[in-house]
């Protein structure tokens, strides 16, 4: 047994142990491969985490392979077949993907790596839409605003208005003088009448009148200023003259 044959045999034993019922040997005539060597079929479904347990497996494919004489230093012969729900165009796409990955993994046993890649591709291709829809539904639920508090009805609104008007009346009563509150019923003013009568605005009115007085314009006459200046000049000259005369008398 050559080194290649030994490595191929060991890989087959490992695949049988890992994949169990999903792995089987088939006749070369059933494989669709152009070879007389041993051929094997692996049944592949999407990842179990991506499936709904309440439904059956939506898609399933068969990965068929056969070792070449110099495998793993050269890629295996590969073929894909739909067992359930996979279009032929998708099968061709997957086969090209697996062949490319086989070329990238030369020199090592690669069949199980290709199986894992095929599982991931099935999950992305056929289960992604369902996952996206679930995420959209969850996002829509998060956006729903749940109202809080007591719902407003006619009865609750009337009760609220009653309380509001009572509180408003109480606030108005606090602002009224005691004489208004102790007046007889016939002479007593309502809160609204008292406010409209202007009595509550007495302080404000006085303040406004005071402001108006402060704002009255003072008329200054330019002639007044001129007269004052002339009087001040004459007074200064007179004092200067008196002072000079007094000094002369003292010297004499």
TrEMBL record:
Acidic residues: bias regions:
208-227
Q: Where is this region: Disordered?
A: 199-227
Write down a Pfam family by its short name: RWD
- PROSITE patterns found in the cross-reference section: RWD
Could you tell me which Gene3D superfamilies the record lists for this protein?
Ubiquitin Conjugating Enzyme
InterPro entries under this entry?
A: GIR2-like, RWD_dom, UBQ-conjugating_enzyme/RWD
Q: Where is the RWD domain?
A: 10-125
For this entry, the protein name equals RWD domain-containing protein 1
Q: Which organism is it from?
A: Rhodamnia argentea
């Amino acid at each position: 047994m050559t080194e290649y044959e030994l490595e191929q045999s060991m890989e087959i034993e490992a695949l049988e142990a890992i994949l169990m019922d999903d792995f089987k040997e088939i006749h070369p005539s059933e494989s669709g491969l152009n070879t007389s060597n041993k051929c094997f079929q692996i049944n592949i479904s999407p990842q179990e985490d991506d499936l709904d347990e309440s439904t059956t497996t939506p898609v399933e494919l068969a990965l068929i392979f056969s070792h070449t004489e110099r495998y793993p230093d050269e890629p295996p012969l590969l073929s894909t077949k739909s067992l359930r729900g996979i279009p032929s165009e998708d099968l061709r796409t997957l086969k090209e993907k697996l062949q490319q990955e086989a070329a990238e993994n030369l020199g090592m046993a690669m069949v199980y790596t290709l199986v894992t890649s095929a599982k991931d591709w099935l999950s992305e291709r056929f289960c992604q839409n369902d996952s996206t829809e679930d995420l959209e539904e969850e996002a829509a639920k998060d956006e729903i605003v749940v109202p809080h508090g007591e719902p407003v009805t006619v009865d609750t609104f009337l009760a609220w208005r009653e309380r509001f008007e009572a509180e408003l009346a109480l606030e108005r009563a606090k602002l009224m003088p005691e004489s208004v509150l102790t007046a007889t019923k016939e002479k007593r003013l309502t809160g609204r009448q008292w406010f409209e009568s202007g009595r509550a605005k007495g302080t404000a009115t006085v303040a406004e009148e005071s402001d108006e007085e402060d704002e009255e314009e003072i008329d200054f006459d330019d002639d007044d200023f001129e007269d004052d200046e002339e009087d001040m000049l004459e007074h200064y000259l007179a004092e200067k003259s008196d002072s000079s005369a007094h000094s002369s008398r003292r010297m004499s």
